[in-house]
TrEMBL record:
InterPro entries: AAA_dom, Bact_polysacc_biosynth/exp, LPS_length_determ_N, P-loop_NTPase, Wzc-like_C. It is an enzyme of class 2 (transferase). This is non-specific protein-tyrosine kinase. It comes from Actinomycetospora corticicola. The lineage of its organism: Bacteria, Bacillati, Actinomycetota, Actinomycetes, Pseudonocardiales. Its EC number is 2.7.10.2. One of its GO terms (molecular function) is ATP binding.
């Protein structure tokens, strides 16, 4: 936790150091002078009386420490020295203390000037001793002749008691670090963003089917996976394997890919999942069902004049609107022209019949749908699929958003297969355990790993080989 919040801790620690420096610069210097007084009860020459006198002296000390800093004493000191402050203010500059059972009183005075501190404490001691001698009377019942207070060590010099520069910076740094650690813990407790697969699993109680690492490529890259050894391809291969075995008796073939909100990578996940399935030799169709902000055609560099909306409006057949991509690695049905009523189209019986037809033609049909929370499109389409993949962006998606998405999809009878954690922080050494991944891909197919799309890539992608072929061949029977 502290490692992930080190910036917060460092910033607060620096603030503490600056606060210590400002305290040193703005706080006036302070000096303290100390005088020592002795309380004595004079008794008759008797062992019992001597003990009683010692007891009386110790008892008097507790009262004398309060009397020494009283306004009655301070008032006289102000008059003697002609001080500008009030007796009450002077009393706050004075302090008196004595260890338990002791007859010695330590009297101290603080002031911005050392000579003034010495004068104040010495005059206070004299006024105090005179007051005590005036108040105390001999006690015949205890054979006490007198109780007096004597100054045994007057103040001569005053010592600096304000913080030095080094001490101010040290105390500021210690306080800042302590506050920084506390702030980091508080920030973590209040931050409900999902940052790990474990946190996602705890929040949803759903299986985590994939964890897609955040790309290290620059945002200007048109294609990811230009170098062998990246963990992205391996992550999608793991997702593909989990999809194939999550329900072994009836593996899902029509997949809805969605996310709680915008910008969480659901379109990228849908595209790369389709490609990963195609790399394994399956016949795959990717359908852009985001009829509000479609991205598939732009990402794959294909024509979007005819697409899903053309099929649902009866202008063409699904087989005719489908385009092959990258030497028929996958087939794509783009969104087509944007309609005024996307939710109604996606929830229509025509859409359900289209999905049923596509299911009989392809091994897998991947449906890229809009986010769950902003619109109802995904919820309208999900019941017609075999299951939903919920894409969650690490460090962006919050737990309440995931909860709301899960409730919405469950309410319409959708089957949520599991979650995909996108933009997951890549651990040290991740992607190198299996060695170069390009060689592993070549065993499956001749297609190179450059075909995987990155979240960091621009919307317009470079075509690789026959990418973006505009021909629409009649799909053959599903390959087993």
């Amino acid at each position: 936790m502290l490692r992930s919040r080190w910036r917060v801790t460092l910033c607060v620690a620096l603030i503490g150091i600056l606060t210590g420096l400002l305290t040193y610069l703005l706080t006036p210097s302070s000096y303290t002078a100390v005088a020592t007084l002795y309380v004595n009860a004079t008794v008759t020459n008797s062992p019992n009386n001597a003990y009683q006198g010692a007891q009386l002296s110790a008892q008097r000390v507790a009262s004398y420490t309060e009397l020494a800093t009283s306004t009655r004493v301070s008032r006289q000191v102000v008059q003697d020295l002609g001080l500008p402050q009030t007796p009450e203010a002077l009393s706050r500059q004075l302090s008196a203390s004595s260890p338990s059972g002791s007859v010695v009183i330590t009297l101290s005075a603080r002031d911005a000037l050392p000579d003034a501190a010495v004068a104040i404490v010495n005059d206070t001691a004299n006024v105090f001793t005179n007051l005590v001698n005036e108040l105390e009377r001999p006690d015949s019942s205890l054979a006490v002749q007198a109780v007096d207070v004597r100054v045994v060590e007057p103040a001569i010099t005053a010592s600096v008691t304000s913080l030095g520069l080094r001490s101010a910076l040290l105390y500021g740094a210690i306080s800042g670090i302590a506050l920084g650690v506390g702030a980091a813990f508080l920030y973590s407790s209040l931050d409900n963003r999902i940052r790990s697969a474990g946190a996602l699993s705890d929040a949803t109680e759903l299986p985590i089917l994939g964890s897609i690492p955040k790309s290290n490529q620059p945002p200007s890259s048109d294609l990811l996976m230009s170098s062998a050894g990246s963990g992205l391809l391996e992550s999608y291969r793991a997702l593909r394997t989990n999809l194939q075995y999550i329900e072994i008796d009836r593996p899902p073939r029509v997949l809805v890919v969605t996310s709680p909100g915008e910008g969480e990578g659901k379109s990228t996940t849908a595209i790369n999942t389709a490609i990963a399935l195609g790399l394994a030799g399956s016949r795959v169709l990717l359908v852009d069902c985001d009829l509000r902000r479609p991205q598939v055609a732009d990402r794959l560099g294909i024509n979007n004049d005819v697409g899903l909306t053309s099929v649902l409006s009866g202008k063409t057949r699904a087989d005719d609107a489908t385009q092959s991509w990258n030497r028929s690695l996958i087939h794509v049905l783009p969104s087509g022209p944007l309609p005024p009523n996307p939710s109604e189209l996606l929830g229509s019986q025509h859409m359900h019949r289209t999905i049923a037809h596509l299911r009989s033609t392809y091994d897998y049909v991947v449906l890229d749908t809009p986010p769950v929370i902003p619109v109802t499109d995904a919820a309208a389409l999900a019941p017609a699929s075999d299951g939903v993949l919920l894409v969650v962006a690490s460090g962006r998606t919050r737990v309440p958003q995931v909860d709301a998405s899960k409730k919405t999809l469950t309410a319409v009878g959708s089957h949520i297969l599991g979650c995909v954690l996108n933009l997951a922080p890549q651990q040290s050494g991740e992607g190198s355990y299996y060695g170069p991944l390009a060689g592993a891909v070549s065993k499956e197919t001749s297609i190179s790993p450059q075909d995987l799309v990155s979240d960091e890539s621009t919307l317009t992608m470079k075509r690789h080989g026959a990418t973006g072929e505009s021909s629409r061949p009649q799909p053959g029977p599903r390959q087993r």
